[in-house]
Sequence to fold (921 residues):
Amino acid sequence: MLHYLEQAMSDAPKQRAPELEFANVSRRGFLTIAATGFAVAAFTTQAGAFARYKTGGDFMPHGIRYDPKIFVSIDADGTVTIVAHRSEMGTGSRTSLPMVLADEMGADWSRVKIVQAEGDEPKYGNQDTDGSRSMRHHIQSMRQMGASVRHMLAQAAAKKWGVDAKSVTVGVHEVTSGGRKAGFGDLAADAMALDVPAFEDLTFRTEDQFRYIGKGNIPITDLHDITTGKAIYGADVSLPGMKFAAIARPPAVGSKPIRYDATATFKVPGVEKVLGLQISNFPAKFAPLGGIAVIASNTDAAIKGRDALEIEWAEGPHSGYNSAAFTEEMRATAKKPGAVLRAEGDAKAAFEGAAKVFARDYSQAHMAHAMMEPPVAVANVANGKAEIWAPVQSPFGTRGDLAGALNMPIEDVTVNVTLLGGGFGRKSKCDFAIEAAQLSQRIGAPVKVQWTREDDIRHSFYHTTSVERIEVALDADNKVTGWRHNSVAPSILSTFAPDSGHQFFIESGMGHIDMPFDIPNISVENGAAMAHTRIGWFRSVSNIPRAWAVQSFVAELANEIGRDHKDLLMEMIGPDRLLDPPKQGFPENFWDYGEVYDEYPIDTARLKNVLAIAADKAGWGLDLPAGEGIGLAVHRSFVTYVATAARVKIVDGKITVPEMHMALDCGFAANPERIRSQMEGAAVMGMTTAMHSGITYENGAVTQSNFHDYPMVRSDNYPQKVHTHVVPHGFEVHASGVGEPGVPPVPPAIANAVFAATGKRLRDLPFGDTV
Amino acid sequence: MATVRINGQSRTIDGPDDTTLLWAIRDMAGLTGTKYGCGAGLCGACTVHVDGEAVRSCQSTVGDVAGKDVTTIEGLSPDGNHPVQVAWREYNVPQCGFCQAGQIMQAAAILKQKPDLTDDEILEGMSGNICRCGCYERIVAAVRHVSTGS
Ligand code: FES
Ligand code: FES
Fold:
């Protein structure tokens, strides 16, 4: 995400890569021009086992590394150590990527050890763990590195035994030839001293030879440590002489303290110091908000001391922010024409000539990520060096930001990545690590900064608030002839650059411009809305309000014109086809999640297929008892297709969800078990988003503070049975990611089910848990 | 200074009696398996056992547990194989894992009180523990497995 923001700020270059580059890919590969454009069929010695394709990973900062000597080491006792270079925040990437490498290599998983990389992209390649990209961008490099080590082990054995390499077989953690046999450990030193083979000299396993890939038979690597309390998260790091800090941050962004009284603070045993911190206002990227820090000998004293501070804050630049009034302003803006982002056909004429126009608008409040582990970081800045331990999604970005904030060369900054107790985009923003490092630099001792839950909910980088208005033109036969979708929401860009009030190409690429319906006249528009708080990305980002609007709207339209919702939705998606962006009025800078479009085109057949699966499995069309209903929604995001069929039952006015079907097409499914856990999690977070997640503002300050007024779905009312249906594909259908795409269809599916059960239409998120 | 028995060991806590038990356990006893999630009794991440009962350690003080036995996730089972821990592994329950020590301690406590829990009792008994990653279905399945063997 970050690197695209930097691009957007520097005069947005073209995002679609018109030419394929072949760095790291066989020069002997050849291009075929398929009907859809370029397809790459690279040379492999096992035809079809692994045809290379281009991903957006090559356009990420520092790209992708293919050198197994960086990622793999083998001890003499046969222990295989694999580096996890992406952050683990619950998606399972720390298990799934090494698992791919291990399988291709022939390693026995029980003898594999995983070590976490520090923030070092020049060494490991890109480490930004967001955008549902870990598997999408790295499955090929993991396979290639695994195959490389397997070849090196075979070569080492051949040399040692004086036999032809062709006679050598690499089995599971052992190598054989004739009657000879050696373990990986026996060959490790010789093998790892060999040159790494070129891609074209490698053979790859065929899918029937996989032991772990695609099987879902590997438990997460930290399972034992998590269940015994030994897993190390950010707050679990402790250094000798470490001090503990809690910070009082401005209630409204940019407000300054006029005066403060720390008398009560110093009465708290353990409090040692009170320090003023520089106040920042956006755009300031991830600069800390500033405020007043309390330094103590333990966390309890730091928090109690912080809470005892009496501070008078001045009015600040955003103290006038009242979100209820702001939503109404956005509603009014959405009714007016916005800046046109996509124009296909002649929408104006379609609306003028319409027999009928149908319009609705849908809103969403801000959200805070509320990952279970609030922001926390430990820093030791001493002797001209800085070392940080933190649960960060962007370890190298963090390192760069720390170097800047500390005024140190980046070589002198080390970022150690702990496990993340959830991330959801919040931990891509390293303000909390900067706080710890600056305090450590200032007091000359190691410091842990612990955010309380109140801090987390009141001082986040919030999911934007929005109004999405959709209007359609209908002809006399109720056929949709025109589509206008005006999206109004403060932009993430406002955190990074002076605010224009307009969204940028990433936000517009998330279910707005890329709307897949087969409608002849389309106008996709963006009305201005200025940011009054720090806006950041939250799992699924703009796809949440877009799916909410589009998928609720089609259900409303079906009801309005007396059609079956599923039939109308299928009909609007239209014939099987790949969308052709230039022909369909997409702008030049259309963003397909950073991928080369022709490798991951918008495929309506795949979209309809997941919808059909979810609807069928849920029993769409069957009669249900009174007070029950099924709701559907389908959405493509992060180049993955997901449909949700939610079954809702109203119990004494309370919305319950006894069952949910999640049908998804993520291309080749590398780890179906973690795909399933992501869908289960998306169902829960989608339900929380639908019913509970509303951050509101009064006079610039967040109204909510903890889980009593910013509640989460709990075990007393959650989607009780989530059925995940994964569309099976071979490796040739490019694997995509699953961390984010599960969430967007959930809120509209629940709302559509509530309508089916009660006749009540919900248009504003969050809509509460009662009807 | 107060003395607290944690996992069968006496620990000296360098702080007043009103020191929050959670931070005494984490910062002073150095046992970091017990987590901070809300500090307000709302999430269950900090759940420990006090004389065998589930207690939110963020809502207790060192003084409250004087003379009592505190058990944390580290002390739930000597080899880490309490039936609840084993079931958690069998169902591959965690995502990020941060809430799971609290979930396991809560589950172990309610199962101790009543080994054969009905589904409603499981849902109710676990409802004080938030999992933002959304592992509820597996949490409930794992507790049910320990409870009824199914
Ligand atoms: S931290 Fe104690 S209940 Fe949340
Ligand atoms: S596993 Fe992440 S909060 Fe429960």
Observations:
- The first helix of chain A runs from residue 2 to 9.
- The longest strand of chain A covers residues 640-651.
